[in-house]
Write a structure and sequence with these properties.
single chain, 3 helices
């Protein structure tokens, strides 16, 4: 039965991967859009730590963790987010939802293998502003939609009882569409012009990336274990085929935008940067009861300045600091279901590296989560809640205050071993 559930969930998730609105953030205007968290929801609920590994869950942040799995593990997740966008002139509320990940991993001796698919980034914004130049006032509308997806194949090897090494190879692909529409609403004499201009960019991205990981796990005594881990993704490039359409536009009697004439240009095989990323973390805990850890992540986003030329934005390097952990009162309790549950919490601070109007865009995010054991082989349902903020209202910018709800499923089963009884 569980295999039928997994197959149905897999088909449903894959069908939804390519048609979803995963963000409403104006900051998705920059770069490839809003980067999607590439870990499972139970990892997100405890500070998004790649350093932690266990035998029940797939930790896609660090491929070295796969070799700790004791059974075939299938996981998937989805999330919903509400966002309040605020500037000095007012605020607006938006919502979005997304499929988060689908992955399958299984052990094979000292090796373990994993495969999966998840979003890589989202583009989703609709912004308006006005600009005054030479006594003329121009109204502008910025619209973006689409996103990138990531499929991966990973392998992990347990070097010895303490060290594991792993590597993921990913194929990143997807489409985005962005447009800028301009109308002169005041020609300097209080009159609008009948026509405007529109520039639309349609981008098709594809390319490979690599993520390598190392895990260290040392039993300090009967009840205490030391964890350490590191990941590294080298700089790589995505291919981008872009079609740009320049149009003269006006509004019909119903207020709908109408293209009067267009000119199309194309560019092939443009190379877009995936910058170097690395992380390292450390933690301590009792493997069956509790864990607490911290992690530092950095991405060389300052190299985006060589590829993107924005009027009011530049990049510094990205970094994030996360702390978190979990607590399971009594994993094998026969008398209390709540004692067998897992309780998670975490917080992280990030500097996105994006600098707009000389203001650094920073964020703070807090999470709590609950793991509900179900069925055989310690399968579980994981529910998480988050609250965070990003940006500020200085220099005409937008501040985001958001909350989110996510749910993940982790099913464990013995698929490659014949049993006498089932």
């Amino acid at each position: 039965m569980i295999k039928k559930i997994i197959l149905g969930a897999t088909l449903l998730a894959i069908s939804n991967t390519f048609a979803q609105q995963g963000t409403t953030s104006p900051y998705s205007y920059y770069g490839f859009g809003d980067k999607h968290f590439k870990g499972a929801n139970e990892i997100k609920s405890m500070g998004s730590l790649a350093v932690y590994r266990d035998s029940l869950h797939i930790n896609t942040l660090n491929p070295a963790s796969y070799s700790d799995l004791l059974a075939t593990t299938f996981s998937m997740g989805a999330s919903y987010k509400g966002n309040t966008l605020k500037n000095t002139k007012g605020s607006e509320k938006t919502t979005s939802g997304s499929f988060d990940y689908l992955s399958l991993a299984f052990p094979a001796g000292k090796f373990a293998f994993a495969v999966g698919i998840m979003p890589y980034s989202f583009v989703g914004y609709n912004m308006q502003n006005s600009n005054k130049n030479n006594n003329m006032t121009e109204a502008r509308q910025y619209v973006g939609d689409g996103g990138l997806n990531r499929t991966f194949l990973g392998v992990s090897y347990k070097i010895n009882k303490n060290f594991s090494f792993g590597i993921d190879g990913s194929y990143i692909f997807g489409d985005t569409e962005t447009s800028l529409t301009k109308f002169v609403v005041d020609n300097g004499e209080g009159l609008p012009l009948d026509t405007g201009t529109k520039m639309k960019n349609q981008n098709n991205y594809s390319g490979l990336s690599i993520n390598a990981g190392l895990n260290y796990k040392q039993q300090l005594d009967k009840n205490l274990t030391l964890y350490a881990g590191a990941t590294f993704s080298p700089e790589m490039k995505l291919k981008n085929d872009q079609t740009t359409t320049f149009s003269t536009v006006d509004l019909d009697l119903q207020g709908n935008l109408r293209e009067l004439d267009s000119k199309v240009s194309t560019s092939k095989n443009d190379k877009m940067l995936l910058p170097t990323n690395y992380s390292f973390g450390v933690g301590i805990g009792n493997e069956l009861k509790w864990f607490a850890g911290a992690e530092y992540t950095s991405t060389q986003t300052s190299k985006y300045n060589q590829h993107y030329n924005y009027d009011n934005a530049t990049y510094n390097d990205y970094f994030k600091i996360g702390v978190g952990g979990f607590f399971t009162p009594k994993y094998n309790s026969f008398t209390s279901y709540f004692e067998r549950m897992t309780y998670r919490a975490g917080i992280n601070y990030e500097n996105t590296g994006l600098v707009i109007n000389k203001e650094e865009i920073k964020g703070l995010n807090a999470n709590v989560g609950f793991g509900f054991p179900v069925g055989r082989y310690n399968s579980n349902i994981n529910i998480g809640f988050e609250y965070g903020q990003r940006g500020n209202t200085n220099m005409g910018l937008i501040k985001e205050n958001y909350y989110g709800f996510n749910v993940g499923f982790s099913f464990n089963d013995i698929w490659f071993k014949r049993r006498k009884f089932d």
